[in-house]
Write a structure and sequence with these properties.
311 residues; 21% helix; Immunoglobulin-like; globular; alpha+beta; 2 helices; 4-stranded mixed beta sheet
């Protein structure tokens, strides 16, 4: 190898050796989230400007990571200053207000939620109630299917997959009470089976905006699954939660095997399925290795032929 080519190769090798730890450090640093967001207000129940809210709804403020210290919360009727009697408690990453009475709110009335903390400052949310108490927990959010798409553009995990889960929107029976506003229903997607899954593991949760049309009865959510979690068959279920945390439990699930494509007969994490995927990968690697050896042999043969030819 000529000296200038050798120097260039050494420079590129050194740059690669320096870039790899830097990339790993950036990926590792990104796993913990942005610490600046810790304690920021993320969500509220009821939703701000919500209407037809059941009169038995709690008031919940959800924060990023933790509830900031020094937080205060007051719920008052619009037009009637003064906090309603109730208890404020911290539950995980939420600040929860519970009424001191059997029925916290009057029907067809407007309320204001006044909140403040040293980080966010003061803010105010409003909602209006409906005709009465809720219609009960959300009916089963039927899961409709799951699919996987390889993600090669993720520098931190080039073998990750984007998983899309489709499910039915909740439809309440209005004869049983006041339906929860659609913006106040949470859909939670769990991994039920798969590599490293010993019990239901939350993968995604979302509140959907009102569809405004019965043709939008099916919704979907897409989230990323790491290469280690997507190394074999995975199964998912969907639960719908009301603001009181109630749900009609179900065991329906949909499964997909990211490593072998979207077609998947049943959900099984048996060793046989892993051996099949590993065997196919080994076969591909063996073919690539043999192809490279053959290419090197052909190049060597051409050089030998050129070198032995008469001048």
């Amino acid at each position: 190898m000529r000296p200038r080519y050798a120097a260039l190769a050494a420079l590129l090798t050194g740059a690669g050796m320096l870039a790899a730890p830097l990339a790993r450090a950036q990926c590792d640093a990104g796993d913990g989230g942005d610490p600046i967001d810790l304690g920021a207000l993320r969500d509220s129940f009821p939703a701000d400007q919500g209407f037809d809210v059941p009169t038995d709804s709690p008031v919940r403020l959800r924060f990023v990571g933790r509830v900031p210290s020094g937080a205060t919360l007051c719920v008052e009727p619009v037009g009637t200053p003064g906090c309603l009697p109730g208890a404020v408690s911290v539950v995980g990453d939420e600040l929860v207000w519970s009424s001191a009475g059997a029925r916290p709110f009057d029907p067809y009335a407007s309320y204001r939620v006044n909140y403040s903390d040293p980080l966010t400052g003061a803010l105010s949310l409003r909602f209006r109630t409906g005709r009465g108490p809720s219609a009960g927990p959300p009916p089963f959010a039927g899961i409709r299917g799951a699919s996987a798409r390889a993600v090669s553009s993720d520098p931190c995990d080039p073998n990750a997959y984007d998983i899309t889960v489709r499910f039915n929107r909740v439809v309440f029976d209005a004869t049983l009470g006041t339906p929860w506003p659609e913006s106040d229903v949470e859909y939670v997607i769990y991994s039920t089976r798969g590599p490293g899954v010993s019990g239901p593991r939350e993968r995604d949760r979302a509140r959907l905006q009102s569809s405004g049309s019965t043709s939008d009865a099916v919704a979907q959510r897409t989230f990323r699954l790491s290469s280690s979690d997507a190394s074999g068959p995975v199964c998912f279920s969907v639960q719908a939660l009301d603001p009181l945390g109630r749900s009609i439990t179900n065991s329906a699930e949909e499964c997909v095997n990211p490593a072998e494509g979207n077609y998947f007969q049943g959900c099984s994490t048996t060793p046989g399925s892993h051996r099949g995927a590993a065997g196919w990968a080994a076969f591909v690697m063996l073919g690539l290795f043999a192809g490279r050896r053959r290419q090197r042999a052909l190049v060597s043969a051409r050089r030998t032929t050129v070198g032995s030819a008469p001048s």
